[in-house]
Sequence to fold (921 residues):
Amino acid sequence: MAEIRFENVRKMFGEDTIIPDMNMTIKDGSFTVIVGPSGCGKSTTLRMIAGLETQTEGNIYIGDRLVNDVSPGKRNVSMVFQNYALYPTMTVKGNIEFGLKNRKVPKAERQKLIEEVADIVGLTPYLNKKPQKLSGGQRQRVALARAMVKKPDVFILDEPLSNLDAKLRQQMRSELVQLHAKLGTTFVYVTHDQVEAMSMGDEIVLLDQGEIMQMAPPLDLYNYPANRFTAQFIGTPPMNLVSVDQLPSAGFNEKAVEQIGFRPEKAKLRHFPGNDQFSMPCTILNRETLGSEIIYQLDTLAGRLFAKTFNEPVVDAEQLFVSVNNEDIYYFKENGRCIAPYLNRETPIKVRSTV
Amino acid sequence: MSGWFERFRPYVMVAPAIIVFVLFFIYPIGYMIYLSFHEWDFISPEKQFVGLDNFSGLSEHPEFLKSLENTFVFTFFSVGITTVLALLLALWINRPTRFYGFVQGAVFSPHIISLVSIAMLWMWLMDPQYGLLNWGLELFGLPQSEWLASPETALYSIILVAIWKSIGFNTLIIIAGLQSIPPHLYEAAALDQSSRFTSFAKITFPMISPTLFFLIIMNLIGSFQVFETIDIMTQGGPLQSTNTLVYYIYEYGFRFFQLGYASSAGVILLIVLSILTVLYFFLMSRRVHYQ
Amino acid sequence: MKTSRYALKGLNVLGLLIVIAIFATPFVWMAVTSVKSLSETITFPPVWIPETIRFENFALAWDTGPFFRYFVNSLVVTLSILVLQLFTIVPAAYAFARYRFFADRALFALTMITLMIPTQLIFLPVYLQFSSWGLLDTHLALILPFAANAFAIFMLRQTFKQVPEELLEAARLDQASEWKIMYMVMVPMAKPTIITLLLFSFITHWNDYFWPLVMTTTDASRTLPVGISALTNVEGGVAWHIMMAGNMILVVPILIIFFIAQRHIIRAFVYTGVK
Ligand SMILES: Nc1ncnc2c1ncn2[C@@H]1O[C@H](COP(=O)(O)OP(=O)(O)OP(=O)(O)O)[C@@H](O)[C@H]1O
Ligand SMILES: [Mg+2]
Fold:
């Protein structure tokens, strides 16, 4: 069990800087999810933890140990790959046992450990089968068992569920979370699916182009985005953004903000303007009914906006108004930073999450 | 820790193979080229440098010219006929049933038999007096042939054996090529109601033409090396009518100990094979380009 | 309409039977001849069914030369080649597939050039070389030049390259050494290819006539194909029945193996031919 610390880590592939300068501490025992758009450096970050890539500069610590020069096999890190990477010529048992054999674990102990993990992931009846004979979910469990049996300090998982169908993915998600609770080991989990990130992680690292945009627990990330990128990345549909100079009422300009934003699910659709500070006439361009909720695309003076409502189909009227409560409005400065007016502080997140 | 070894590991791993290649393939080629500029009888201690004399000698040597001619005739007919017949046969017997599988096996079977046995078997079949082939000709009311015994027919008899032996292999390679054509191409053609001939000309042939190209080149390279059947069946005779390039090298090197001559004939074979090889790689790179 | 369809079908089957006959008859004829008497071989028109089946022809053929010796030589030479190839091919293919090192491309190019050099081109200089080393007419002269196989290295390298990188990374995280990765992870995955290549090598060298003919001078190291070929000049004229009996000894085992493992053998040859 160990925390993982990145200290001024820089990673270049040839001339390209993939990660300019990364500093972070992944808490011991946490389920940390690294999320971000494709190509932002999630896998690279993971692989640096595992030692499969070496950072160009900076230090990586696992626990108190500086692991810059430690080979992958000696870092006591287990990895679960997207394509499982099971040894096709070995049985399930052989797959789980391979790492133990390489560590010269005595036979009797190996046997015991294998039985233990096979039981945890429910693979006991399949121990003598070849991986090709198993279903996707079972293969994923073998990969997990192989990772677990080494009793690693850190588990890293690179999009482990993306090859599974939707239903199985759902099930494996909760199994993984339970497994984490049971083992208490540090999990670092990569995904580009924000739903997966929000539902599984107790800490989320949001990456963009190799830079950490925000690192926070899921709800904080949703409620208190630090910047425009975070605000737009988390939530579907993404947060609506409106330039201040497109707004009819001038009241927003005072704090030197460039844009304001609000989440579609906080928008109110009504037949009258109301007296919120933000209120605009709009027409419905498109409506998507998703069972319990409805997503509207609205045409306004400030461009297209989204609104999401639950269980209240709006009567089709020519003219509607979209308005937002004052406390649901986010303010973005020119540099993309988010400020929350009701606190009048630049970084509301830390303040809020410690209250 | 073992960084030193790590760095040398790849070299250690390739070394055994590379040593074998250099010792028994690369160096001998160099040595052969060297010998081709010398006169040597294998016994005298001195190798005498003679420049291009061996080559000019060869160019006036009727036996060598005959062997060159025979090699080209052999190559032309054996490769040409084998390829055409194999293509037709492949189109015919490319079906997935057991019976067709058996036919494919039968056609292929000569390929795994030693050429020694094949040569001896066909000598017997082609025996002018008691051979089965003449019996067969007589059965159909055709005139009998002297086969290997006559200078007119000997080379063609050898060509017949070469075709019989290699047609099965060629057929199966073409079948493999045919089977790799995506079926949806034919489905599209069927929707267009194209005739069988059109779909052959528009789909099948273009799709397997890379396979055919490579088969032809491989067959060319192979047939320039023909030796076994000649050595066993005719020993170059009668009257030099089946003497070929490799057999010439063998005879001049091993029987007459004219190593300079034999080596320069070897250099000529090397040149022919190099041209074919370059052609092969050229086509290969073109094919890679297509995909 | 219907009758012409049946006629066409019948014609097709007839054609296929003729094709089979073209390739099977020679072997049948070999078998028939091998149990004939001498006088039955020199009659025209030929007889198809001999009066008495003379199995003693096989014994006679076997006794014309030291065939047991030839057989042992063939076995020793072929198996040695296979074992040596296994030990040279696998590491070389692995290194070419997985490591970048100085001059790797040049060494691979050298391998590819070797692939294109037939034995018919190099026998003379190699003969001279062996003669100066005193290796002529020994098993080593028949084995050493084939201790590595450029073609097999090329094929196996392709196979190794197809193994996903993740599998190697998983093994590295499992603390496997490089040798272990090679022998425990990669080689088992390439097993079908390796077996195919060895099968191919076996048939090639078991049947090889040219190289042993050139490199051997006595029965001490001659192999079966060379020994059998001597039946063409048995004293006292050609004895077709003995010759065919001798060849039956060489051909029948291979044909039996072929018809048992036909699919594998054909796949081996086609696979090695196409790629
Ligand atoms: N071995 C490599 N050599 C060169 N560039 C690389 C290498 N590996 C990754 N990259 C580059 O680094 C960047 C980050 O790659 P990485 O695999 O970490 O992205 P990712 O966030 O995992 O994306 P995805 O969600 O698509 O898996 C990409 O632009 C990629 O092209
Ligand atoms: Mg990735």
User: Anything to note?
Assistant: The mean pLDDT of chain B is 88.
